[in-house]
Each structure stands twice: as structure tokens, then as C-alpha cells.
Design goal:
heterotetramer; A: 258 residues; alpha/beta; Glutaconate Coenzyme A-transferase; eight-stranded mixed β-sheet; three-stranded mixed β-sheet; 7 helices; 15 strands; 24% helix; B: 327 residues; four-stranded antiparallel β-sheet; 19% strand; globular
């Protein structure tokens, strides 16, 4: 299959979408995660149940929502409920994936979306958790979608807004988080990373076509583990690109951010 | 009660349910006509220093008319509770109304970007912050709605969000497992925009209710703005639809297009141009001040604001953009 | 965790949310056709010894067809959760199905009087009882629905109801006040009768939902009986009305008049003559056995039972008696 | 006003109804309490907000409900919600009165509706709390409607299903029940009783017309306090009786139980 030209954000979103299996449930954050989930629903996972924290459940998304609480999030949905309903559904263990973004991410998959610098005298204040901490605590597998650079991927985040593996193996369980949960995949514009089964450290699993390992390492603020069998991430298909551009994000809110 | 760990932020509100019960004991239960103007409602129920919570979700189903009135009334030192608060928070920052905030999501406007002014305000250190998550705030309101002093969840465990919150980690008396105890919060006043209300405050909401059902029950006072007033019979003919009953409500104001520039499901979509203009003018403080004067301070009513923003023509466009309008 | 006082009754179910999460992790989420017969549903999801909860409120919106099928399948040693359980409890006692019960209201049929047979069964000492209140059971289900191991309330404090329960009294970590910790309960199976469902299990209920929204979320398996099946489009066109989403549901059975002889709001009133007959025949064990044979054991379907009770003529009368029928 | 002949149950229900002030909220149990609330709504308290534990709120009762969860309990109601909604409304302190019945009542207003005799080998098993314990714990003032006899009114109940003043002054507060709550009035077919402000013991306040103090004492299994200013309860008015018989309980479910 011939593949059209595509940009890095398009590559990132198409790759992320493929991780969503059909017939599963996913709680999505605002922006790129939302675009990826919509793409998945239209291409590879027609029975994907998308959960929005404000109350929307399983819409047939007509366009990408601008807010995870706007009316598109329950357009022809199965249910238009509330925050308590969607969050408790995650608490009970009914939600397979959390699909999130983040300003800083560290080697244990901890996410910072609160502050850079000292908490009381921040260099930069970000929005805070929103529902991200809740999703990262309750959903079975957390996936993070983020543009790859040194300021974002750091050895240790300035502030743990949402839990990854915290300080390493066993730390989530010791803190009291539900057993069997944690970060699963990090999907960037350069690579896909998982976590080492023992050390729980971030591990490069697949590098996007046209990207070198060196690019990944230069854009990562710590030394990630490199899987013994690093793969090449296949590029977006024509169908994926067409749907992404024409149906998911025709306004180029997300894919236009280069 | 053994406390394993606790957040270091102060609690802004007393979680004692008996204090709240004493208030609710005296709250009138009769079905009376509660209509008034935005100005009357703000004068009566939103004094300087009170603790406020806003319904909806950021720029969806928000009570813009009351927010503008709060700015015009130059309210100061307000407390605030916001799960995902976006344009509402941006407005209160624009008016320098805030003193202490219980928040989960501030400064941002989701996919639209971040508010330069709200960011300035929050980075200034002049507003006290207590961190929570969306669900944690929902549980806090839910606990208040249940008349108890705390609720439990597994949010925030292991994180700095917990450290900068007012939560405490306890052990379950049955399983020994850890849970986060979240203190109940009874806001002094909540303002909620709904689709329909009768003059007594019995309300219908179409689509998602976000955390507003919990909020209406937790707040000591409730101000309702409604797209349209309906006859009491419209309530009694289908009581399954009532989501906020009259005895929770203190003021009812009919405000068509009341969530503008936000989205109102089944009615009109958000005005993305106007919201983008906010983000743009906020970059320059002088320009921002002129913008605020033009759109809020020198405006005498919400209708006048709607006219300034494009009037009926604009509203018809937004109605067309709303996916859920019945066609 | 300091425990100030605790009930002396045994807990019948494990309140560990991680055990429940493991179950729910594997529960299928795909929207598949879940239609089956009453018999298939009972065979598949209600084995001997399982812990059952019934939706509705006693003789209002109850899943009679499944209850009859449980009797015909001669189920034994069931656990049971009942807030106000009336005709449902009477049926399960008639079938000697029960072994251990978490209850708040049993034996009685409200203004109609008490069931002589249910009373005999409960006075025999053969069924283990744990006492609760209606709200306490609601909180236990709600805690399960929230994925936590307990909820708190101020019910039962100071009373023998607390002593004969499985609750524990704890102190609030914020206020030092006493609260009753109520253990979460995840029933093995819930059976709920609703107004409308699609083939996937997305449900509408008109009128009061009692504790069924919490129950549907707490139970590991959910069997839905519905007055009528509707097309999936009827769900998606108005998602505000959906109260039970498909992924909670394991079986869907269309049973018109399915709450008979109970009341179904907006559809038909209860058959007070038939319910009075139950109370009368229960006084004599032989007569009661003949009655049960006639109306349940020798009957092959719920439609046959409806015919025995007066068929369409009777159902039309009950429809006339229902105050909420749209006329 | 001429007063028709009436029976004791009618007297009891009409008297109880008068204690419900207009513009207040009341949570009602099944049977006589429900009849009294309906009568009050139709005669002296048109804006009475009646709350049913199963979810019905403020119906315009067309007939007396047979069940506190039947469809009459939300006929033209303000809201048809659920048990959690109505019970938490009581928990928050929004409900003025609880209106209950009971198999046994003692001098501190404790109610037994669970068992007579030993709990494990009961002489008689009753239904249990239902929502009565919750109402008696959360509502500001509890009122009990019950036929007066020695087996019902006892020194000490066999089982405290729902809390009165428990073991006396301060006991409710010590147990952790919300401050300022407790039994307010007991309305029987013979008299109205309140509670002594200090000792919290039951106190005869008014005796129904045609009833002697002796009748009350003979039908009470303990020695109640007699108020220094015992009144005579006025008999039912013609209007009350007419509405009770023709609108509230035409089937004589409650008023026919003599």
C-alpha cells in the first residue's frame, strides 16, 4: 500500500490509535488522546467504548470534541451521565485503557501536569490533574501520547500529578493503588515505549519509520532501556490519514500543531 | 482513627455535617416564586469572601450571566471550587475575584490552549491553592450531599497531588486497604445553568450533568440560570426528569443563551472565535483591560453582551454548529 | 483504624474491591445481543448457593418471571440482599431457596399485612440473618458501585440493629465524629425489571429507580427483564435517559407485564386480589402447596401464569387502575 | 361545628395530620403515617412536601399508597428519584419530620419493629427497620402513630430497631447521632404524648375527647409522666372525616382496622 506524506503528529496519533483494541473501554483526555480514540473508532475499533470524564459514554463522534465535556462527547451516545458515573466505572475496574497527555513524563511513567519548578514559586503553572490522576490510578493500562523532547521526557518529574510506577517496582501497590494497574505504552512522534517488566523503567520498543534511535535518545532527558527487539513502527495507512484529516480533525486543531 | 499520610494544604471549608445541618434546618421548604435578576441574586447570595462553585464543565453549560455580574459587582476574596474550570475560572481571574481555590484543572481551556492572564494570576502567589483531582472534588461534593464529613476514593495515592491537597490516607476497617479520605465541602453558593426550570427551581438538564447534581445538593445556596422557564406542570407531568428539586434552590433567572460563549448541549455550540479572542487579548494587559471594559464592565445586561458578540445572527450560526440540535 | 463498636453478625460477602476489580477486568465490554429465555438466564447465572439481589421495591417493578423460574429450578442455599423486599422475598421463602440474608425489611407486604409463610421460614432459624436498614444497604451497594470497600453513614448508631449487623463504628479523621462504616457488597447476580431495554442491555426506567442504579453497578452479573425491547436507536437518540449501560448487563429478556402481580409505574397497578390470596393461602401449608403448584410449579411460562391469573381482561383492569397511565 | 361519629383510628389519623405544618417536609412510613400525611396535604398543609424512601417526592397523592414505593408516591410528583436521593436529603437535615409506626415503643421513644423475645429464638419476627431507623436517625423530629395498648407501649423494647432517646438524656449524642434530633410526638388512638424536656421520658400531653386518663394509663405498659397541663384533643372535624373517608382511604385499608 502506497503511503502519502504525513507529519509527525499524524504519525503519533495513527500509531496511538492502533493500540486500542476493538470491544474495549478507554477513558480519554483532551486533545491528541481524544483524536486517537476517534480515529480508532472509525478505522480499527468500531466497538470501542470511549469514556469522557464529564459524563459522555460511547458517542458516535461526529467531530473531535474541543472539550471532554462538550456536546460531541455524547452525540448519539449510549449514555449522557455525569462525572461520578464515569469515574466510578473506572474505579470498579471496567475501563481497560486511560489515554492521556502530559507536560512532563519520567522514566517510571509518572506524569506532571501541575508545575515546573518549586510548587510555591513555580516557573510555570499548568492546569493540574483534571481527571488524569484518577484515570491513571483506576484504569488497567495507562497510555500516554506526547511529543518527544528533552524538556518533556525527564529523569524525574518536578511534581507527580498522576501516578506512573512512582519510585519503581512495588511502589504503586505500597501506596495503595489498585493492583495490576500502571503505565502501559508511551506513544510519541518518534517512538513507542513500554516499561521493563521487572524494573518498571521506560523501554523503547519501536521506532517510527524514518526515525533513528539516536533521535529518540537525543530527545529523551534520561537514558531509556532499549528493548532487545526494537521494531520499526509502520507508517500511517492511506485510510488512517484520510480519516484523520477529513473526519477526525478537519480543523487541524491537533494535527496542525507542528 | 489512624492517619497514615496527609496533605499539607489548608482546608478552606469546615467539613462538619452538623454545621451544615443547622443551616439546612432553617432553609425554607415552601414552593415560592424565586425569580429575580442577576444583580439581585449576586447582591443577595454572593458577598465578598464567600465560597463559590460553578456548575457545568469549563465552557459547557456555564452560568455566564452570573459570572459577568460577579465581575461587575467587583467581588473580592472569593473561595472557589473547580473540577475542570476553564472559561469560568478565566473570568474570575480577569476580575481578580479569587483568594483561595480548591481545584483540579485551572488556567487551561482544554484543546484551545492556556489562558495567559489566569496563568499570571496563579503564578503570582496571591491566590491560595489546594490541589485535588476531578473525581476527588466530585467525592467531596458527594460526601456533603450525603450529609457526612468525608468520602473515600483511591485517587491521588502515591502522588504530589495528594501532598498538596487537604486529604488524609486511612485504612479500611474491613480490609486494611488504604483509601484517601476526602473532606466534605459545602460551598456557600453554587451557580448552575440548566435547560429548564420552573419559577420554584425545579430543574431539567439534557445531556451530561457533570458534577452538578452533587453540587446542587452540597451547596448551601443555589442560584439557577435557565435557558427557559417552564410551567410547574411541565415538571409534575414527568417527575423522572427532575434533577434538582425546588427546595435546594434560592434564585431562578431565565437567561436564554446563558452559557454563551460556552456550549449548551441541544441548544448551541461554543463560540470558538470569541474564546480564541480572549486568549489573544490576554497577552497584552492594556488590550485585555479594554476588552473587559467593552464586553463586561461597560455592559449593563447579558442581552447587551450577546448583541456585542454578534446578536441573533451569531447565535443562529452557533445553533447550526451544535451537533445535538433536533433537526 | 480504631474500631469503636461493631456488629456481631457475619459478613456474607467479601468487601475487597480488588477481588471485584479482577472479576470486572474480564467482563466482556462488546455490545452483543444478550437476549435469552428466563430458563437460560437462571441456568447460566443463578446457580445454587449464589448471592442474589432483586431490583425494584417489594411489589413494585419486580422481575417476577425470573423469581418464578428460580423456584421451578429448585434453587437452594441462596444468599439474598433485600432493602424493602416483599413479594420477592415471599416467593423465595415459598421456594425454600434462602440460606443467608442481608435484609432491612422482610416478611411484610407493607399495608397489606405480613406473610405467614415467610414468617414461619424466618422464625425457624434455618436462614441466617444480618440486619441493616434500607439506607445502609443502599450505601453498601453504592460503595461497591464506587469501587471501594466501605461507605459511611449515621444510620443504626445506638441501636440493636447495629449490634445485629456487620457494620463497624469509626471516627472521622477530620472531625472526630462517629460514623458507621458499611462494607461494600458485590452481589453475584442482580435481577432488575425495567421499562425498556435494547438487545444489548441499555435500559430506561420511568419513575423511581429505588436502589437499582447502585445495584446494577455493584452486581457482578445483571439479568434484565424488560416490559419491551426497543431498537438501539431509541437509546442513542436520547442518552440522558439511559440509566443502566450495556456493559453491566449479561442477559436481556423481554417480559411484558413482567412485574405482575406487582405494580409497574406508567403501565399497570398491582393485583391486590392476587396478593391478598397469597396471604390467605399461606395460612394453611397444604393449601399453599396446591396454590404454588397451580401458579408456579406446574406452569411452563410466565405467559401461562398471566393467563391463569385472568389474562388480558385482568391486565386491562390493572392498566385502568394505574394512576400514571397516559390517557 | 357539628362532629359526626368517628372511630378511634380516624381520631388518631386526624390528630396526627394536624401536627404537620404547611411548608414543611415529612418522610413517611407505610400505612397510617402515609394516610395522615395525605390527609394533612388535603386539609391543613397544602404545601406539605411528602418524601417516600423509595424515591417519590411531593406527589399530589390521588389515593393512599399501598406501598411507599408504588406509583402513587410520585403521581404528579416533583421528582421521581431513588432511595439514595431521599435518604441523603434526610441526612443533610432538610427533612423536618419522620412519621412512623412501630410494633413496640418504650418510654424513651425507641421503636422495635424487628423481634419480640430473644433475637435468635424470636417469639415473633417483624419486618425489621426498612427505612425507619434511617428516618428516626436523620429527620429533625420523629412522630410515631400507633394504636395504644400494653403490649405496644412497654418500659423497654425487646430490640431497639430505630432510635428514640435510647437510654435517656445525652444518649443519642453520645452514640453519634446528629445533634438536635429525636422523638417529638407519639399520636395514638387515646392520646398525644411528647417527651419531658429534661428526662426525655414519654409524657402525656393531651387526651382525646371521650377518653379518660385511666384508659391511657391502663393501656401503657409503664408509668408515663403526666404533663401539668394535660389538654383534651379536639375531635376530628367534618371536613377531616369527609376527606379521610372519601379521598384518603375509601378502601378502608387503615381506618377499617378496628
Amino acid at each position: 500500500m502506497m503511503t502519502s506524506a504525513y507529519n509527525k503528529i499524524e504519525m503519533m496519533i495513527c500509531t496511538a490509535a492502533r493500540f486500542l483494541e476493538d470491544g474495549t473501554t478507554v477513558a480519554v483526555g483532551t486533545g491528541a488522546p481524544c483524536a486517537a480514540a476517534m480515529l480508532a473508532q472509525k478505522v480499527n475499533a468500531p466497538n470501542l467504548v470511549i469514556i469522557f470524564e464529564a459524563g459522555g459514554l460511547a458517542p458516535l463522534l461526529p467531530q473531535m470534541p474541543i472539550s471532554v465535556g462538550d456536546s460531541r462527547t455524547f452525540f448519539r451516545g449510549i449514555m449522557a451521565a455525569g462525572m461520578n458515573e464515569m469515574m466510578t466505572t473506572c474505579c470498579r475496574g471496567l475501563v481497560d485503557y486511560a489515554f492521556l497527555g502530559g507536560a512532563q513524563i519520567d522514566k517510571y511513567g509518572n506524569i506532571n501536569s501541575t508545575v515546573i519548578g518549586d510548587y510555591y514559586k513555580p516557573k510555570v503553572r499548568f492546569p493540574g490533574s483534571g481527571g488524569a490522576n484518577d484515570f491513571a490510578s483506576f484504569c488497567w493500562q495507562t497510555m500516554i501520547i506526547a511529543v518527544h523532547n528533552q524538556t518533556r521526557f525527564v529523569e524525574k518529574v518536578d511534581f507527580v500529578t498522576s501516578p506512573g510506577y512512582l519510585t519503581g517496582p512495588g511502589a504503586r501497590e505500597a501506596a495503595g493503588l489498585p493492583a495490576g494497574t500502571g503505565p502501559h505504552k508511551i506513544i510519541t512522534d518518534l517512538a513507542v515505549m513500554g516499561f521493563h517488566p521487572e524494573s518498571k523503567e521506560m523501554m523503547v520498543e519501536s521506532i517510527h519509520q524514518g526515525v533513528e534511535l539516536q533521535d529518540v535518545l537525543q530527545n529523551t532527558g534520561f537514558r531509556p532501556i532499549i528493548s532487545e527487539s526494537v521494531k520499526t513502527t509502520p507508517p500511517p495507512s492511506d485510510t488512517e490519514l484520510k480519516v484523520l484529516r477529513e473526519e477526525v480533525d478537519p480543523g487541524r486543531y491537533i494535527i496542525g500543531r507542528q | 482513627m489512624n492517619i497514615i499520610e496527609e496533605g499539607q494544604a489548608p482546608l478552606f471549608m469546615n467539613p462538619d455535617p452538623d454545621k451544615a445541618r443547622e443551616f439546612f434546618r432553617k432553609k425554607p421548604r415552601a414552593m415560592t416564586d424565586k425569580r429575580m435578576t442577576e444583580k439581585e441574586a449576586v447582591d443577595m447570595f454572593i458577598p465578598d469572601g464567600c465560597y463559590l462553585a460553578i456548575g457545568g464543565f469549563g465552557a459547557n453549560r456555564i452560568p455566564t450571566a452570573i459570572l459577568h455580574e460577579i465581575l461587575r459587582a467587583r467581588r473580592r476574596n472569593l473561595g472557589f471550587l473547580g473540577h475542570t474550570s476553564t472559561h469560568d475560572f478565566q473570568l474570575l481571574c480577569a476580575g481578580n475575584c479569587l483568594k483561595k481555590v480548591d481545584v483540579a484543572y485551572i488556567i487551561g481551556l482544554e484543546a484551545r490552549g492556556l489562558s495567559p492572564n489566569a496563568r499570571r494570576v496563579m503564578e503570582s502567589g496571591e491566590v491560595e491553592v489546594c490541589e485535588w483531582t476531578n473525581y476527588a472534588l466530585c467525592v467531596r461534593l458527594r460526601a456533603a450531599a450525603e450529609g457526612v464529613s468525608f468520602g473515600i476514593a483511591r485517587s491521588m495515592l502515591g502522588t504530589d497531588t495528594l501532598k498538596m491537597s487537604g486529604a488524609k490516607v486511612i485504612e479500611c476497617p474491613f480490609t486494611g486497604k488504604r483509601f484517601v479520605a476526602l473532606p466534605a465541602v459545602w460551598p456557600d453558593v453554587a451557580v448552575i445553568h440548566v435547560h429548564e426550570s420552573d419559577i420554584y427551581g425545579n430543574c431539567h438538564i439534557r445531556g451530561i450533568s457533570v458534577a452538578d447534581l452533587e453540587l446542587a445538593r452540597a451547596a448551601k445556596r443555589v442560584i439557577i440560570t435557565a435557558e427557559r422557564l417552564v410551567d410547574g406542570y411541565a415538571i409534575r407531568i414527568n417527575p423522572t426528569r427532575t434533577v434538582i428539586p425546588f427546595y435546594l434552590v434560592d434564585a431562578v433567572i431565565e437567561v436564554p443563551f446563558g452559557s454563551y460563549p460556552g456550549n449548551m448541549a441541544y441548544e448551541y455550540f461554543s463560540d470558538e472565535q470569541h474564546l480564541a479572542q480572549w486568549l489573544k487579548v490576554e497577552k497584552d494587559t492594556d488590550e485585555f483591560q479594554r476588552f473587559l471594559d467593552k464586553y463586561i464592565y461597560n455592559v449593563s445586561s447579558f442581552e447587551e453582551y450577546l448583541e456585542l458578540c454578534g446578536g441573533i445572527k451569531k447565535l443562529k450560526e452557533l445553533r447550526k454548529l451544535e451537533a445535538l440540535v433536533d433537526r
